[in-house]
Each structure stands twice: as C-alpha cells, then as structure tokens.
Specification:
Blueprint (H helix, E strand, L loop, with lengths): L6 E3 H8 L3 H9 L6 E3 L2 E5 H25 L3
Helix pairs in contact: 1-2
C-alpha cells in the first residue's frame, strides 16, 4: 500500500517536478513557486504544485497559440 504525501520536502518536490534542488531554490528565491517554511525548511503542498504546473502549462499553450496565429500561412 503506497503512502500519498500531501506535503513534500524540497528534495521530494524537486523529484516530483523533475527539476534539480538548485532549480527549485531558484524558483523559491524568485517567488515563482508556491511553498512555505516549516521551521527553517521549505515545504510544498502537492495540490498547490499541481495547480502551479497546470497554470504554467496553460500559459505556455496561450503563448504558442498566439505565435501560431501571428505567423503567415
């Protein structure tokens, strides 16, 4: 039986997102990703990360759609 984690450590979140811990620290320093500190350690709620991913992918889709529409046929 697998355990479903609602809150992840930085290392778990970096694995989940497929980025290095250094990249995740960069996102944190730039206030680009939802996270909170518990004591002095960063924590990430899985549902907020999922929404962040969805929002980011929608933004990329909108940019790609706009670029396609502006190209001459």
């Amino acid at each position: 039986m697998g355990q479903h984690k609602d809150v992840m450590t930085l290392r778990e979140a970096s694995t989940y997102l497929g980025v290095s811990p250094d990249t995740l620290y960069k996102y944190l320093n730039e206030h680009q990703i939802p996270a909170f500190k518990l004591g002095n350690r960063w924590r990430f709620k899985k549902d907020l990360l999922d929404r962040w991913i969805e929002k980011a992918s929608e933004s990329v889709l909108e940019v790609n759609t706009a670029r396609s529409a502006s190209r001459p046929q």
